[in-house]
Specification:
It is a single chain. The chain has 898 residues and is mainly alpha-helical. It contains 44 helices and seven strands. It folds into five domains: 17-212, 3-Layer(aba) Sandwich (Rossmann fold); 218-282; 284-370, Arc Repressor Mutant, subunit A (Orthogonal Bundle); 552-760, Tetratricopeptide repeat domain (Serine Threonine Protein Phosphatase 5, Tetratricopeptide repeat), CATH 1.25.40.10; 805-887. 64% of the residues lie in helices and 4% in strands. The strands form two sheets. A five-stranded parallel beta sheet has the order 2-3-4-1-5, with helices on both faces. Strands 6-7 form a two-stranded antiparallel ribbon.
Length: 898
């Protein structure tokens, strides 16, 4: 390696960075090729002082030289608890440069969702969904990137970025293939908490191979020494500079500056003094140097380190309790000592102050040098200063997190208010930190349960298990009364349900109901009890529960939402039991107000949750009232998208839109919606009930399309196998898995699974449209046990007649026809076609047409079925019809039929 120095405009820290600079230039040039160029991510990792910041400064210079727009941000060691801090630094300057109307135009529907997180819009009344906010921030960058192409984003000290920013960055990095944006991230290998480290690893996994920056070689150190001190610096002196600094670029530059300040001659006889000089540039040496500037300068530096970001002379003066003119003198003194420097006006971000530390290492050293008791006290004063400055409770909370608990009710209220502000912008983790800190104060006895309740609500969308712990603790303490206590019980039961603890959810509601006398609260809890019981697929006492629900519903006129929910539950119960579909619809219709959802029962209302609405729409769907069902599913999707709820709620909405498509016979659309549901659900976590519902419907849809291998792959990937969840899945999961096993050649296993479904259905869920086992088991046993098959077919037909929909009757007749031959078969197929033609289920109609055409040996009927099958996207059925036409309408075997 030669002592050749980098370009004159470059930082000394760029020595021996040729490989990294080449990669940067290549990435910038690739970005600039055209507006459709793929985005990319570069990650530079290394120890403190290794030159990461200098490398990002060179990225800025090179990008701006080539006509790129550059936005930058940096993490801070003392502000890791401030949500969206780093992403705000990135985006605020671009957004605030626009007129308000322009900002709304660029962000569109995302303005009200992402705007509060960015600090450019007032939060709404609803709890913000973190995933929705994250998606909104991605949309904000993608839309602004089209305006400001080519766009380069720089993030320095990412190991100190806040957790919310890192969530966004990890998700954004996965989307870079769709966006023409270059992202360059610099981080240390350590110095990140477990949670942030995991997110940083996820970011790095999407980058080009992460580059770990190395220390300077002895040759490069010698070149840098001579470039700084003069060519007369001799070799022994240069070698000692390298030995003292270990080739760390920052330490090398600082040491050489000390050599210049002390006018030390760069020769071998002076080399022994280098270690002492180096100690004065960092750690205790830096602290001693700071103390040498005087008490006032030291106080000023301490106050600046406490603030960490947004360092203004005015704020520091207030925190350090000194007059403005004295504070200004201290700022100049610290600048001359290379401890503080004025913010670079060219790269200054919104929220930056007038001053910043020359290097994060200096900021850390100064902060750690503050005596612990003094540091804690200064954070307490800083919280007061920030609050008095009008920056709000959330801004003050990061300082209060550092203050020792002191039984202060005012701190409890400040942290509760900060938590509300954090939740309003989609930062539940930050809200939880504030509320957990409030618990340490601790709250007064009458407030303690309220804080626990608020903690449970804060985690409801993100962590059901955590919600359970907090709400159970809150309910075990005095302080929750009236509607708040009932709401806590209902939320706890919801969390238990979503954590696959259905029996616990029911017991929780029942225990609270037993404490209350008759009245609205008791009725609400009884409704919730029946709601959870209605989702129980294995309840042994189902008939008794249904009778109790029927008696309750009989008294309901729909005058309030508790009564409306009970009517919905009765309709859903009738549907799963396979009772008369007209009665199902009559109960569901009575739960509406002028054909619409009642106020307080909307998809984003939290009092009742989404379960009764999903039960309402599903009852309509299986009762052949698909217009009403699809209207509700579409409303759900629109409501969650407009509210920015991009987690489990949106996943469920897509899943049920997919169910509507499947029932309608739009199999391609159903598959697309269900796959999107699974994609979103991946971000929530596997094993939850929503996963089962979506996977089951996707497997069933793929089988209907004739894509058995894809269905098997989905089942294996998402664990669609026993043990089954404690909540009901529609269509019946065992039935669908049995159908899958038969379709993939595992006949004996398939029969066993269908027989297990039959035993489970003996508990009361007899609707042949949702519990598909009867038809498939009859077909599978048709040759080896025709008597048993006939008995099954007769039972399916009786249940279909009881339910009474055209779909149920048509499918029962199609099964009966499949077990017959000759004129008897064709007559049954003709009746099946008549019913299914009148039903809204096009795929079932297409199947009956094809089978009728084969039985009748009618090319005309086959062509009708073929046309319908193609419109449905039923590739397997299309192949079957075409094969029958090509083979001259030959009769197919029973076990070949769908």
């Amino acid at each position: 390696m030669t002592e050749e120095r980098p370009g004159a405009a470059a930082s000394p820290s760029l020595w021996e960075r040729e490989v990294e600079l080449a990669a940067i230039e290549e990435a910038i040039d690739a970005l600039r090729e055209d507006r459709a160029s793929r985005g990319s991510l570069l990650v530079f990792k290394g120890e403190a002082g290794i030159g990461k910041t200098a490398l990002l400064a060179e990225v800025r210079r090179l990008a701006e030289e080539r006509g790129c727009t550059v936005w930058s941000a940096r993490g801070g060691e003392t502000v890791t608890s401030v949500p969206f801090n780093v992403v705000r630094q990135l985006l605020q300057p671009a957004l605030l440069s626009l007129m308000p109307d322009e900002t709304r135009e660029y962000l569109g529907d995302w303005y009200d969702i992402a705007g509060p997180a960015l600090g450019i819009a007032v939060p709404g009344d609803r709890l913000a969904d973190p995933q929705g906010v994250c998606d909104g921030l991605i949309a904000a960058v993608s839309r602004l990137a089209r305006r400001d192409w080519p766009l380069v984003l720089l993030i320095d000290d990412a190991h100190w970025a806040d957790q919310e920013t890192l969530h966004w960055l990890a998700a954004f990095a996965e989307r870079l293939g769709e966006l023409s944006v270059l992202v360059v991230v610099a981080r240390r290998a350590a110095d990140a908490t477990k949670e942030r480290a995991g997110l940083l690893d996820a970011v790095a996994a999407t980058a080009r191979p992460t580059t770990t920056l190395s220390a300077l070689t002895p040759e490069a150190t010698a070149g840098l020494t001579r470039a700084t001190l003069g060519e007369h610096a001799d070799a022994p002196f240069c070698r000692e500079v390298w030995a003292v600094t270990g080739g760390n670029p920052y330490e090398t530059v600082e040491l050489l500056a000390k050599v210049q300040d002390s006018q030390l001659e760069p020769v071998e006889s002076s080399a022994a003094e280098l270690r002492a000089l180096n100690r004065s540039a960092r750690g205790r040496g830096l602290v001693a140097r700071l103390e040498g500037l005087g008490i006032e300068a030291t106080r000023f530096a301490w106050a600046a380190a406490i603030l960490g970001t947004g360092i203004t002379v005015e704020l520091v003066a207030t925190l350090a309790t000194m007059r403005p003119e004295k504070a200004m003198r201290c700022a100049h003194l610290l600048s001359a000592a290379r401890i503080l420097t004025e913010t670079d006006r060219a790269t200054r971000q919104v929220g930056d102050g007038d001053l910043e530390f020359v290097h994060p290492l200096i900021a850390t050293a100064v902060y750690n040098a503050i005596p612990p008791a003094t540091r804690t006290a200064m954070h307490g004063v800083a919280a007061e200063v920030v609050t008095a400055s009008g920056l709000g409770a959330a801004a003050a909370s990061r300082h209060l997190l550092k203050v020792h608990p002191d039984d202060d009710p005012e701190v409890v209220e400040q942290m509760r208010e900060a938590a509300r502000e954090h939740l309003a912008i989609g930062a539940p983790d930050a809200a939880c930190r504030c509320l957990e800190r409030a618990l340490l104060e601790p709250p007064a006895p009458g407030v303690h349960a309220q804080v626990l309740y608020e903690l449970g609500c804060a985690t409801l969308l993100t962590s059901p298990a955590t919600t359970i712990d907090y709400l159970q603790s809150a309910l075990a303490m005095p302080g929750l009364v009236g509607g708040t206590r009932v709401d806590a019980v209902v939320r706890l039961s919801q969390a238990l349900l979503h954590n696959d603890q259905l029996e616990d959810a029911v017991r929780t509601v029942d225990a609270e109901a037993a404490r209350l006398g008759p009245g609205p609260a008791h009725l609400r809890l009884r409704a919730v009890h029946h709601m959870w019981q209605g989702l129980n697929p294995g309840e042994e006492h189902l008939p008794g529960r249904s009778e109790e629900l029927a008696a309750l519903a009989a008294t309901c006129t729909g005058r309030n939402n508790s009564e409306r929910v009970l009517l919905i539950l009765r309709g859903f119960d009738l549907m799963t039991r396979g009772d008369n579909a007209e009665e199902v619809v009559e109960h569901c219709d009575r739960a509406l107000v002028d054909g619409r959802l009642a106020p307080g029962l909307g998809w984003t209302d939290t009092e009742w949750g989404i379960e009764p609405l999903l039960m309402l729409a599903t009852a309509y769907a299986y009762a052949d009232r698909l217009d009403q069902a699809e209207s509700l599913y579409t409303q759900a999707l629109c409501a969650y998208e407009s509210a920015g709820w991009s987690g489990g709620h949106l996943a469920l909405a897509h899943a049920y839109v997919g169910l509507g498509h499947r029932r309608r016979g739009r199999l391609k659309d159903a598959e697309a919606s269900l796959r999107e549901s699974l994609r979103i659900a991946e971000r929530v976590g596997r094993g939850l009930p929503l996963y089962w519902s979506t996977t089951c419907n996707l497997v069933e849809t793929l089988l209907a399309r004739g894509h058995a291998d894809e269905a098997r792959e989905i089942a294996e990937r998402y664990g669609f196998a026993p043990p089954y969840p404690s909540t009901i899945v529609l269509p019946d999961a065992r039935s669908v898995r049995g159908r899958l096993l038969l379709a993939t050649g595992r006949r004996d296993e398939g029969i066993n699974e269908l027989e297990a479904a039959e035993k489970a259905a003996a508990r009361g869920h007899h609707n042949p449209v949702t519990a598909l086992w009867g038809s498939d088991l009859a077909r599978a046993l048709a040759h080896e046990d025709p008597r048993r098959a006939a008995e099954l077919a007769l039972a399916v037909r009786r249940r279909a007649e009881r339910f009474g929909t055209d779909t149920a009757l048509g499918e029962a007749l199609r099964l009966a026809a499949a077990l017959e031959t000759g004129q008897r078969a064709t007559a049954l197929y003709a009746r099946a076609v008549t019913h299914l033609e009148a039903s809204p289920c096009a795929y079932e109609h297409a199947t009956a047409r094809v089978e009728y055409g084969i039985a009748l040996r009618s090319a005309a009927e086959l062509h009708k079925g073929l046309t319908l099958a193609r419109s449905c996207g039923a590739d397997g059925l299309v192949d079957r019809a075409q094969r029958a036409l090509d083979e001259g309408l030959g009769q197919t075997r029973v076990d070949d039929r769908t």
